Amino acid sequence: MVMWKRIRLLFLFVFSSVHCLPEPSPSLLGILVLPLVTQTSATFTIESTTPANGATGVSLNPTITIIMTQAIEPTSLNTNISCSPSCPSLTGGSSNRTITLTPTSALTSGITYTITLNQNIQSTFGLTLGTNTSFSFTTL
């Protein structure tokens, strides 16, 4: 008989404790995972360039770096970057938010080059530039 009393008391204690547990709150997983996705803006545009727009005295063999506000869909770069006036071919690619381009031969001294990103370049979030976007620099 004493055993049954103990079991009933234990049973009552356990079930009354369960009722007092707080309701689960929303998971922090979304907060912890989202910063790993590289989207720094609601719009997709150029954040910065090297050389900077309007720079002068740029090396004849520059590494051109374009940082975007969102991660880039690499396949959208294929024919969507141009250089004028007539530049040597540009090689390179993208990694996350960065496009890196290198001329295959030296640029011409004292020329202002314009790099244009076509409006069809796309972020991994599905946004496009929407308009052709350019920046220029002048070589030594």
TrEMBL record:
Domain SbsA Ig-like: 43-139
Keywords, comma-separated and alphabetical: Signal
Coiled coil: none
Signal peptide start and end residues: 1-20
Record flagged with keyword Nucleotidyltransferase: no
Gene3D superfamilies in alphabetical order: 2.60.40.3710
Family annotation (Pfam families): Big_5
Name listed for the protein in its UniProt record: SbsA Ig-like domain-containing protein
Phylogenetic placement of the source organism: Bacteria, Pseudomonadati, Spirochaetota, Spirochaetia, Leptospirales
